Structure formats: C-alpha cells, structure tokens
C-alpha cells in the first residue's frame, strides 16, 4: 500500500483508492477515466442515479461523503460552488467526519481563493492534505484526458497525486500554496469569457454591416485572431444552437467570483466588468443551462 507523503513508485500507484464526489457534466467523464485507468474508485453523488453507469463498470457506490473519506486514500470533489463544497466537507456525514491523518482532499471545483484556503485549513486540522485543483477545459477534453489542471497546495502532494492528474489532464501547473489554483482558474475563465464575447461582438458587427456570417467565420478562422475556442464554438455561432459543453450559468458564477477579486484588490479592469454583466444578463434571460456561446444570442437581441 502506498505510504502517503512519500514519492510513489510507478508499480504502486494503482493501489491508491480514489473517492469521487460530484458527477455532473465534467465530473462524470473525469471519474470514468479514473476507473478506466484501473484505480479502485468509490463514488458518491447526491442524485444517486448519476452513479449507475460508473457502478456498472466497477465503481463502488457510497452512501455519504463520510463513507468516501473512510474508504479512499484520495478524495476528489467536483462540485458547483463554494456552498456545495462546504456542505460536503462539514455536514454531519461529510468528508471531515470520515477523514483520517495522511489522506488527501483534492477540490476541483471553481471557488474563490479565500474559500480554498479556508477548506485547506479544515482538512489540515484533521491531519490531511488539501489541494485546490480546478481545471481548464470542457466536456470533450474531460472525456479525452486533455484538461489543464491548475493546482494550489504542497508540491510534495502534487507529486504524490500526479498519477491521478496525468489520467485527467494533458498539463499540470503548480501555482503555489493553497488558493493559487483557484486564483488561476478565475484568471483563465475571465479570458475565456472575454474571447467568446469578443467573437460574438465581431460577428454581430459584421452581420449588422451586411456581411454573411459564414464569411466572417471564415475570415476569423484564417486570421491571427483565430483561437481553438473559436473553432470549438463556430458551428454554435453559425447555427445559433447552443448545447452545453460549459454551461453559461457556471461561467456567470466564475465571472462573478473574478469580479469580486478585482474589487477586493482595488483593480480597474473595464472589460472584466462588462463581460460579467453580459453573462449575468444572459443567465437572467434564460440561457443559464445553455453553452457559454449563447452569449452571442444575448447580444444579438440587444442589436437586431
């Protein structure tokens, strides 16, 4: 059995017992990759039906986060927001109730840096290790193991858990102490929101001036302004259909977190304020469960 805190020999890494809490759009394909990599996997989700596919493939379904913590060496949480993470940690049958010394909690949710530091303090008080490790990427990269994993925490624990990270992502970046992974996620998601809104505005200006949308898309694709995310979203822009790869309501939440950090640090970032307002309005107008690219339609309604 692997001794936590020491480097892990390659032949022993699959003896890690992994607990996974949160089987939403991203969590489910990520957990499936862990199971397919032959780790022993324990799963919990508030909606138990979401555990059925993994259970049929060999995962053990647990009845509470406490049971996950008791049975697993590494506990991964992939939840909607800070309130959900706090509940899973501190509830009567939560992770902290079952956590013992030397175990590791990896929170891959998108929360504020301050929340990650707070969660780390709770876990460390129980003798455990904590990493905030949110990811950059959406459902397809999650299925393919091509996520970018943004880590805050002790470098030694990053090394110990690298076999898990390597199953889930193509790149692992350690940014420093607890909270820094969450800070990195807010930074990259601010840029993501800006790129998608910027592309939407460019398309709408061209359309307003009488250009064909397909020609504008061809122009952007051939230019220095082309990006991988534009290529991923161009058919959504063209067809004006927005099945969710990354739900707009989650982007709105993340931009709200970024805005709070900007204000707390007395910064002036005009684009950040504008993009946060656009996504917030799009959510209020019913686009929350659609893809982030649905911000195009929100802006179109304002201009046509």
Structure commentary:
There is one protein chain. The protein is an alpha/beta fold. It contains 15 helices and nine strands. It has helices at 27-36, 52-56, 65-71, 82-90, 95-98, 113-125, 139-144, 155-160, 162-168, 180-208, 213-222, 228-239, 248-264, 270-287, 295-303; strands spanning 17-21, 40-44, 60-61, 74-77, 104-107, 129-132, 135-136, 147-152, 169-176. It has a six-stranded parallel beta sheet, sandwiched between helices. The protein has a three-stranded mixed beta sheet with strand order 7-8-9. α10 (180-208) crosses α13 (248-264) and α11 runs antiparallel to α12. The longest helix is centred in the middle third of the chain and has 29 residues, at 180-208. The radius of gyration is 20 Å and the shape is globular.
Keyword list:
three-stranded mixed sheet; 304 residues; alpha/beta; 9 strands; six-stranded parallel sheet
Quick recap:
By secondary structure, the chain is of the alpha/beta class. It is built from 15 helices and nine strands. Helix 6 links the parallel strand 5 (104-107) and strand 6 (129-132).
SS elements, strand count: 9
| Major sheet strand order | 3-2-1-4-5-6
Alpha-carbon Rg, integer: 20 Å
Order of helices and strands: EHEHEHEHHEHEEHEHHEHHHHHH
How much strand content do the residues show? Answer: 5-15%
Helix- and strand-based class?
alpha/beta
Give the averaged pLDDT, no decimals. 95
Spatial separation of the terminal alpha carbons: 63 Å
Number of helices: 15
Low-confidence stretches: 1-11
Please give the share of residues in helix.
40-55%
Q: What general form does the structure show?
A: globular
Describe the largest sheet: 6 strands, parallel
């Amino acid at each position: 059995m692997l001794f936590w805190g020491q480097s892990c020999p390659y032949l022993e890494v699959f003896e890690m017992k992994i607990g996974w809490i949160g089987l939403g759009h991203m969590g489910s394909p990520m957990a499936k990759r862990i199971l397919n990599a032959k780790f022993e996997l324990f799963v919990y989700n508030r909606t138990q039906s979401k555990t059925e596919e993994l259970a049929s493939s060999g995962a053990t379904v647990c009845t509470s986060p406490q049971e996950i913590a008791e049975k697993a060496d590494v506990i991964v949480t992939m939840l909607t927001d800070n309130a959900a993470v706090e509940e899973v940690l501190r509830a009567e049958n939560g992770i902290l109730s079952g956590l013992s010394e030397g175990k590791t909690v990896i929170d891959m949710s998108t929360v504020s840096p301050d929340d990650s530091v707070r969660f780390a303090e709770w876990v460390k008080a129980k003798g455990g290790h904590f990493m905030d490790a949110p990811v950059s990427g959406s459902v397809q990269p999650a299925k393919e193991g091509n996520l970018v994993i943004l880590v805050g925490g002790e470098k030694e624990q990053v090394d110990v858990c690298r076999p898990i990270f390597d199953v889930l992502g193509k790149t692992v970046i350690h940014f420093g102490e607890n909270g820094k992974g969450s800070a990195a996620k807010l930074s990259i998601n601010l840029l993501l929101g800006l790129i998608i809104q910027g592309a939407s505005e460019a398309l709408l200006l061209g359309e307003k001036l009488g250009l064909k949308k397909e020609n504008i898309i061809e122009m952007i694709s051939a230019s220095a302004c082309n990006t991988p995310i534009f290529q991923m979203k161009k058919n959504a822009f063209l067809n004006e259909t927005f099945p969710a790869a990354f739900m707009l309501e989650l982007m709105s939440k993340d931009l709200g977190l970024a805005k709070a950090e900007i204000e707390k640090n007395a910064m002036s970032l005009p684009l950040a304020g504008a993009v946060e307002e656009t996504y917030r309005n799009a959510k209020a107008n019913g686009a929350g469960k659609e893809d982030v690219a649905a911000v195009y339609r929100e802006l179109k309604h304002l201009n046509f």
